[in-house]
Amino acid sequence: MVVKIKGTKTMTATGAQTRKTLPLGEIYGDINNIKNVFRWCLTLVIMAMIAGSVIGYISGNVSSSNLLLTGILPVLTGYYLVSRENFEMTAVLLSVELILLNTILATRGAGIHHVTMLAFPAILIIASLVTKRQTMIFLTILTLACLVWLVFGEIHGLYAPAGIIHGAAASFYLASIIVVITAIMARVLSETLFRNSLQIQRELAERKLTEGKMESLIHELEARNAESETLRESLASLVSTVEFAEIIQKILEQIKRVIPYDSASVWRVEGDIQKFIGGRDLPEMFWDANVEFATDETNSALPILTGEAPFILNNNVQEELMDFKEEPHSYINSWLAIPLKTRGKIIGAIMLDGKKKGQFTGHHAELAVMFANQVAIALENSRLFNDLQNELRMRGELIRELEAKNAELERFTYTVSHDLKSPLVTINGFLGYLEADIASNNIARFRHDCQRIKDAVVKMHTLLGELLDLSRIGRIANPSQMIPFETLVHDAVDMVHGQLAARGITVDIQPNLPAVYGDKQRLTEVLQNLMDNAAKFMGDQSDPRIEVGQDGEENGLPIFFVRDNGIGIPLELQGRVFDLFDKLNPESDGSGVGLAIVKRIIEVHGGRIWVRSEAGKGSAFLFTLPREESQSKSQGDSA
After folding, report:
1. What's residue 473's pLDDT?
2. Residue 588: pLDDT above 60?
3. 3-class SS at 485?
4. What is the pLDDT of residues 360-382, one digit of tens each?
5. What whole-number distance in Å separates Cα of residue 572 and Cα of residue 570?
6. What's the whole-model pTM score?
């Protein structure tokens, strides 16, 4: 498939560039930072040459000025090398030119005493910050060779120093330019190095912080597991189960043994709401609806819910409390309410009801407070236990998911190693044939064997590229957006136009298709792969056709389809169509990665894909996609 191969080449080239610039990247950051540093240095060198040329003209040294202006041309070449990311070549070119240029200027000037001798250490210092050790050895030797020429060439009369042909002021200006340019270049390099070092330190600190938080969460979970188990065992004498509903019933049974109530209820306080969570001998309406009350002035339980009273005891509620005159409380005449408190916080209340007036006493209230403390502990333990069970269940699901992924990874590793080993075996075998071909001077056979090796290399390159493309799905994504589905279809048709035209295939696109939310490039790749796959397995159909459209919805997501009238897929093979490298027809083109990529892209978008087919009657690939961002997020999270 054309687009996929192009993408592979681009990614391979990028990987090569990254490897090529890795040492500088570790020091100065990404490629753009390195380019900016080199452009700064080149610009400063050009400015220094222009300034030196101007000083030479002013002081009457025209030949040196012309030499400096001519030296600007190789420096300009450095911009081209930087754009091609040949940083080492740029550094070598610039350093060699400056060393030789300074040597020539010194030879025409005051020799070893020429003011440009200040540039030699500056050049080596700057070069050492951006070049490898081998390069620095070469530049150092070149510099020493130039110094040997300047000193011993003068001693042996190979050249005659011209003496100082410009005044002290010109020497001062030249020296100042060299010092300033060196300082600026050193500053640019050191500042970039320092900034990248700080960035690396911040990333390391963030990574350590994240690891620390993960360890803290694990320790906290382990501690909660131990605490919950200890609490459950210590409260075994109070309750024989940690089931929430059973705890309430057991506690209310114990209370009834010492306090003669007719009905009882347990409530939880959530913000400004009092919610019913369980009870005994209550009217049916408590169980048929989610009963709750506001914790405001109209609620007679407000004093215990706010902590103003240790309990409420009223033996004549129908005459004294207004909220008991309505259902479901109209049958109550005596009422005893006790807060449920744990760790100093009121979490709810127990309310005991009596049908007779004067049914409860102060002694009953004292007993109820004692039981309430036990109830609060038991309910809190039950909540902690349930939370722990949920966490353990989630951990179990995570472990099972990891085990499944590990199993999938093992299958993936085996498949990849098998498919990648095949081209290597081919290459190795035909390398032996090449020796025999050369020995027998069989040029035709030699070319045939070379072509087989090239084919194996191309196959391996394609496999590796498609694997890289598959691994990047879900990690490196383009911004999601709303896209008319018809736009995606037309873009995909344009990409596979050659295959469709070659086989005379007609594409029918259903009108009025809905828009979808996602990565346009990836979704176009889905349709491109599906249509390319349909064209590939069209067979000898006299009127080949591909139909793209929508067929209903699933869980609120539109179901799209790509249907063909090709050779179809036997039922026993349909479960393998999305497996990696699993080619149902070994003689067909491609590597067997295309449909695996399609499945991965659809799942990353929160949808699912499946196939309907019958041998000899064509195939239909159906898939769901989100119509809006909220669907994409919720479906993606659940996936």
Report:
1. 58
2. no
3. helix
4. 988 888 877 777 766 666 666 66
5. 6
6. 0.37
CA-to-CA distance for 460 and 452, rounded, in angstroms? 12
What pLDDT does residue 631 have? 60
Q: Give me the long-range contacts of 82-86 (CB less than 8 A, separation at least 24).
A: 82/35, 82/38, 82/39, 82/42, 83/35, 85/17, 85/20, 85/21, 85/31, 85/34, 85/35
CA geometry: angle at 302 spanning 300 and 305, to 5°?
135
Whole-number pLDDT of residue 446 = 86
- Supply the angle between the helices 362-440 and 443-472 in degrees, to the nearest 10: 170
- My answer on whether omega of the bond before 328 falls inside 30° of 0, hence cis, is yes
Average pLDDT (526-550) is: 88
Contact 118, 181 (CB under 8 A): no
Of 116-130, 407-421, 505-519, 588-602, the range with the lowest mean pLDDT is: 407-421
Q: Please state, as a whole number, how many other Cβ atoms lie within 10 Å of the Cβ of residue 171.
A: 18
Percentages helix, strand, coil for the chain (3-state, rounded to 5) are: 65, 15, 25
Whether the CB-CB separation of 611 and 574 falls below 8 Å is answered with yes
Contact present, 617 and 564 (Cβ < 8 Å): no
Tokens 């005044």 sit on residue: 167
Identity of the residue numbered 44 = L
Residue 170: the pLDDT is: 53
CB 485 within 8 A of CB 516: yes
pLDDT value at residue 609: 92
Across the chain, what does the average pLDDT equal?
75
Q: What is the pLDDT of residue 201?
A: 66
606 sits in which H/E element: none
The residue among 380 and 534 whose pLDDT is bigger is 534
Distance between CA 450 and CA 446 in Å, rounded?
6
Max distance between CA atoms of the chain, in angstroms, equals 132
Q: Report the half-sphere exposure of 330 (CA within 13 A, side-chain side).
A: 5
In this predicted structure, which of 27-31, 336-340, 341-345, 516-520 has the lowest mean pLDDT? 27-31
Residue bearing tokens 């005459």: 319
Which is it for the CA torsion 243, 249, 252, 258, positive or negative?
negative
CB 340 within 8 A of CB 348: yes
pLDDT at 12 over 70: no
Question: Cα–Cα distance between 109 and 67 in angstroms, integer?
Answer: 13
Using CA atoms, how far apart are residues 548 and 562, in angstroms rounded to an integer? 5
Q: How far apart are CA 177 and CA 44, in angstroms?
A: 10
- Tally Cβ neighbours within 10 Å of residue 48: 22
Least Cα distance to 608 among 619, 596, 622 occurs for 622
Host H or E run for residue 610: strand 609-613
Q: At what angle do helices 520-536 and 485-495 cross, to 10 degrees?
A: 50
Q: What pLDDT is attached to residue 482?
A: 92
8 A C-beta contact, residue 600 and residue 473: yes
Segment 451-473 mean pLDDT:
69
